[in-house]
Amino acid sequence: MTQDTIVAISTALGQGAISIVRLSGDNAIDIVNRQFDGTDLHDVASHTIHYGHITSQGQHIDEVLVSVFRAPRSFTTEDIVEIHCHGGVYVANKILETMLVSGARSARPGEFTERAFLNGRIDLTQAEAVMDVIEAKSDLSLTLANKGLDGVIYQLITDLRTELLNIIANIEVNIDYPEYDDVEQLSNDVLKPAIVALQERISTILERAHYGKIIKDGIQTAIIGRPNVGKSSLLNALLREDKAIVTEIQGTTRDIVEGSLNIGGVILNLIDTAGIRESTDVVERIGIDKAKAVIAEAELILFVLENNQPLTADDEALLTMTEDKNRIIIINKTDLDRELQHTFTDAVEVSALRHEGIDELEQAIRNMFLHGDINVTDQTYVSNARHIAKLEETRQALTDSLSSIENAMPVDMVEIDLKNAWLLLGEIIGDTSTTSLLDELFSKFCLGK
User: 60 and 93 in one domain?
Assistant: First the structure.
């Protein structure tokens, strides 16, 4: 079946050394060749690069290098042509326009990767890992993404499905051919241990997924406290830059200030909030309301108190508000005389102004979320939220099958839950995915990818 030939600019828009315009489809070589002043691309070998000019109406647009990848040895398994031009916004768009006029159509976001999936070159987890590689913010997250790209997650899910399929197949044989003496009689005593073992394996994967998600997405962290306790100074100290404005005037921070920090390969998404107190100032109250919303969504609270001030009613209110959250209490301004009488277990003492105690604070954060060293080389960490949700549903389906066993239900009823678990795992790798799911997933990709 002939596929439309799609085209998009695959590099970020903006001025730079090089831009790449990519085409994929049955007519990719022919479309580019009609506008290429150079070697006849119909005659060139796959995986070769050729010098020439892209033309429009007989006029040279740009001096280019054209790479040719013939099917099926390409990313999409279709003919792919990549035009490497000078990195100006206008010239790249002019070449794109020329390809569109010549018969290509604009690619949808993620359509190149979608074709690679639909044409069987990669599975759905590898397709999603492509985006993870692009969005990686640390060595750990990049290693994790590359393991997905290498098919590690696919193999993990396939192994789980194989175990399930073996149980289902034995049930089918037992149902269809009960008269065969050599067929294992799958009583509840035999089924239950196999299902429990599989469920425990999935539970272990989900426990490690906590670390994978932290490595991939980072930790949403809110810095909170009364006005003027040093929240902005702490943010600046952690980031090693003057990100937030710092003054001695209370209420200086009136809106959310954000920044990211890499702690041993784990990203901390820091949010400096407005000081929370009773206020009649309309603008400050808006900032305080935003701060309270951030606290509700934060995965970690850095609660800042002053070493040189006793606890106030506002401090007490914030302590109560955050008592059920992951929280580290920070006693700031240790360079000043101590007036704080209250003793907090495991509080971290710092002087944000002098950048003292910051290393200890970073270690406390890491200890809270990562127990021991994370080895992404030797272990498989599931980090994709969709995968985690499907694994949770799979575990529940196995729980349902165990309930059927406990209630002495017929073995074919147990099989229904096991088949549901098998289908749910299939959705992770794209074996049983719906068109609407695929459309949603690939729409999140950038153009040209």
Answer: yes
pLDDT on residue 75: 95
pLDDT tens by residue, 227-238: 888 888 888 888
State the alpha helices, DSSP H only, in 111-254: 111-118, 124-135, 139-149, 152-176, 188-217, 231-239
Pairing label, strands 266-272, 257-263: antiparallel
CATH number at residue 80: 3.30.1360.120
Are 296 and 157 contained in the same domain? no
The radius of gyration computed from the CA coordinates of the chain, to the nearest angstrom, equals 29
Give the domain range for residue 161: 139-214+384-430
- The tokens describing 107, both together, are 């690619």
Which string of b and e fits 378-410 if b means at least 16 CB within 10 Å? eebbbbbebbbebbebbbebbebbbebbeeeee
Structure tokens at 397: 């389906």
- Find the length of the chain: 449
Kindly give the parts of the chain with pLDDT less than 50.
Answer: 180-184, 243-256, 284
| Number of domains making up the chain | 3
Query: Is the pTM here over 0.70, yes or no?
Result: yes
For position 251, what pLDDT does the model report?
43
Closest by CA to 426, choosing from 222, 162, 221, is 162
Residues 266 and 354 in one domain: yes
Residues 227 and 331 in one domain: yes
317 and 288 Cβ atoms separated by less than 8 Å: no
